[in-house]
């Protein structure tokens, strides 16, 4: 990479970081088209990924789960199919995404088990050591400080609790990566921006993917946040990755 490429990459990184402070406002704007566009642009694969998350839940009764950046509650509505779960709390900064999630929960008659509220993933309105599992799907890369998000998830987990982070990543196979990047850089933003009616929501969201750590880099960040037994499960050629870790029973200072 030349010095000028490096400078422009640094500038782009800073511009994206700045915008992440209020990225939830973009979701307020695109909330009504979010679900149908997601299904269409991912060809429904995103639903399969969330089911994979459900399969990786700990095998324990009465699980209480906190889902960050819950959006329109797609994750809670799939996880709740696991009969071990007693309740799920979903938090997000976008009131419009949550309003749609609330309607879906009401329609599914699940308001006793799933509740949603406003909450910042970098400053959780939750007590220490209270949740069995914390989840975040396609949300953490939108946080202004994703490492703070990891630390917050660690703080609110009970000792022995499990973190699950699902996020986009880049396929390792050269050919698949090239095809994927063409779709991701050209096709997806074009369709997304038109159908969401938002000038550049999908261009911005896609840039955040290529700017975000994945694979071993993300696992190292989880370890730095003190998680143990960390692992990464690549999904669909590595287009997305599910990261899992555990909060130790005894936390070293
Ligand atoms: C791509 S959506 C993912 C929604 C959902 N988890 C899913 O899998 O469909 C990202 C969500 O992150 C939320 N978000 C952005 N910044 C946030 C923050 N600091 N704290 C909590 N949620 C945030 C947005 O409002 C948006 O609903």
Task: Give me the secondary-structure topology.
Layout: H1 3-20, H2 23-41, H3 45-55, E1 63-68, H4 74-79, E2 85-92, H5 95-107, E3 114-118, E4 131-137, H6 146-156, E5 157-168, H7 174-196, H8 201-210, H9 216-224, E6 228-235, E7 240-246
Parallel strand pairs: 1-2, 1-4, 2-3, 4-5
Antiparallel strand pairs: 5-7, 6-7
The protein binds S-adenosylmethionine (SAM).
Task: State the gist of this model.
With 253 residues, the protein is α/β, with parallel strands linked by helices. Helices cover 47% and strands 21% of the residues.
Question: How would you describe this structure in keywords?
Answer:
Rossmann fold, 47% helix, 7 strands, alpha/beta
Provide an overview of this structure.
The chain is of the alpha/beta class and 253 residues long. The protein has a single domain, classed as 3-Layer(aba) Sandwich (Rossmann fold). The chain is 47% helix and 21% strand. The chain has a 7-stranded mixed β-sheet, sandwiched between helices. Helix 7 (174-196) packs antiparallel against helix 8 (201-210). The chain starts with a helix and ends in a 7-residue tail after the last strand. The structure holds S-adenosylmethionine. S-adenosylmethionine (SAM) binds at residues 23-24, 27, 68-71, 74-75, 92-94, 97, 120-122, 137-139, 142-143. Residues 23-24, 27, 68-71, 74-75, 92-94, 97, 120-122, 137-139, 142-143 line the site of S-adenosylmethionine.
